[in-house]
Amino acid sequence: MLTRDRLGAFVAVLFGTAVLALTLTLLASAKPRVPDRFAAVTVAVRSPGVVTPVDPFPESRPWSSAAAAQIVAWLTALSGVTAAVADRSFYAQPTLDGRPAETVQQAHGWASAALASDSLIAGRPPRSGHEIAIPGDWGVPVGGTITVLTSVGPAQWTVSGLLTADRLYVSDAVAAVLGPGVRLVGLTGHPDPDQVRRVVPGATVLHGAGLGDLEARTDARIRWIGMQVLSAMAALSAFACVFVIASTSALTVHQRRREFGLLRATGATPRQVRLLVIREATVVGTVAGTAGTALGVVLAPAIGRVLIDAGFEPESFAVGLHFWPSLAGLLAGPVIAVAGSSIAARRASRIGPLEALRQAAVEDRPMSGTRWTVGLFLAASGLTAGVATLATDSLSDLASLALLGVMALIVAATVLAPAAVPLMVWVILRPARGPLGTVMRESALTGARRTASTAAPVLLTVAFAVFIAGNVQTSTAAYANHRVDQAAAGTVLVPDGTPGLTDAVAGTAPLPTSLYLSRTVVAAVGLDPAAVEARALNAPDAMVLNESRAAQMKVARGDSIEVTFADGTEHRLRIVEIAANSTAPAEILLSRAVVREHDPSALAAALPLRSGGWPTATTARKTGARVVDVATYARQADAEEDRLVWIFTLLLIGVSVGYGALAVASTLFMATSRRAPDYRLLRLAGATPRQVLLAVAGESALVVTIGAALGGGAAMVALWGSTAGLRSQTGSEVALAVPWPTALLAIGTCLILALAGSVLPARSGLHRVGLPREAS
Known about the structure:
By secondary structure, this protein is of the alpha+beta class. Among the domains are: 1-33 and 218-360, no CATH class; 36-217, no CATH class; 491-638, no CATH class. Helices cover 55% and strands 15% of the residues. The strands form 4 sheets. Strands 3, 4, 5, 6, 7, 8, 9, 10 and 11 form a 9-stranded mixed β-sheet that branches. Strands 15-16-20-17-19-18 form a 6-stranded mixed β-sheet. A 4-stranded antiparallel β-sheet has the order 2-12-1-13, covered by helices on one side. Mean pLDDT is 84; it is low at 772-776.
């Protein structure tokens, strides 16, 4: 009987530790690897790092060409250094078969070939302008020409040499012009890292395993997204695990009141009863945690491949076996089980002999004063988190507040559920007539706490499914509407297979870049001087700040600020205007010509076309662009990010629904298995086996309905707060999206498993009631 009573906790810990061990194994394996482009580098010197709350992977502050040359000279003189190379990269994308090649979007100076040990298989290194070394498998011979897109547009380049690697190299003189800012100096040979640090103070020196930090920003970003996915899965699983254990433990204590009362009657102290419950939880947690950890480690390689295919991990990701994730899973099993059972153990220790016998049939007080206090406090906390979303400008903070809000509301709904059960039962079963309706109604009313405990997994499942899906739908629509409002044009020119638009097709489009203010990087945009909002930017040293940045820096109109551009040069800019946050497209506005001068690789994100007829589809395609209507632009501007978000959403919904549904089945199985005496009474009262099973099925459906209503209500309140925050953040009309298909799927899954977990054991229990199974 002990195993049956603890089945819900066993299932919760099993799957909770499986997800925990799985995610921790994947996280431990998600280590950056040294890119092939730096295979020969033994020590790397990176320019000073910067911080920004917007981008977790900002580019470091670059050195100017003059500063980089001096650093190279210093490092070359060190003992053990074979070569010191200033690595220069810039936007260059070849066009193959009339389309931009998406696999290669950067070129480097020929000197950087030493950092990868790249050598030519034919031809010679590039020595002058518009000479380029390309991969030999592209089918272009030495002396042939290839079209290459740079920031100014397409041009014909002459192939001087062929490589085995998928990389592009140009002459060092051309690289110095197109990639003037230097962020990395690579060293080959066997230099002493400590000597390097002394020579270049303030720089980041990487060596050994630290060279993995040289991975491309795209790979680092993908790896970071994968870590967010895995962390969210682990957090959601831990929360659901403790939640389900707490609800199933409460149900177990409720069902075993007579047993605990008898123990108290035979002399057991409250402490002994409490330790009994904790000891049982420890045993269940240890066994389930061991099995769950093994399951998680076995599944990790398969899930790792899924993450790579989905785009949450780079191609270099490989799953390995690590000691600490397995140890964490083994320890988490008993810890989570004890944590979830602690409140139930405290309740069990307070049961007295006479009280247990008196409460065996009817609950006198399903809601205590402490329960009311905790439930109302959590409900107020959830509402406060929803209101707080109106006061934040950060998307990350908004998401965190919304998630904390829904968690608080879920727990609040669970704690307050016994108070809501009588009213909900009366509303749901009021139309029910006859003996079956009466049995179901009275059974739920006399056991409000039991009903609330069995409904808790349904509440959790529906709440998370509705909130996660609804939040993603609402935010996707909100930012799409915001892009439509900003475009204000019938058609938009957007990149097609390229990271941005070149000047050849978007010569007047805003040009994004980064400015460095000491250790802070700030988003800036270069505007065409002919634009109304840029009329004050005719002077090369003029800049416009938005209100938020001006307030943060405590500067005003007429002040001057020293900034570092993308080419590493430092200049002093004068503030000519303070713009409203709602009208400024970035924190800092500059003249477009100034941005192009200092950032040769800057590309435009999009260009609204108010005439709608330019350029032609053929011209746009050859230059890596295409014309779309505003609705398509709004929908596809963040298509890849939206795809990842939806996969992330489905993973979280899958974890929450799967976890909750299994908990529903096991909880109802526990509740039904203990009710053989009830079935005997029904049979003695004249009910047929079919009527008994219909009563059981009706009670299960009632539990699912109550849990779905409470969970849906908690999710909708949290969604309201999230929607209000998005409306305030985007300045657009945002409608709250209710994910009906997801909600119906979650409720349907819970209902099917609830019926299976209650009707099947009830049917089996009819054999043991001591009466024949045929109709009376």
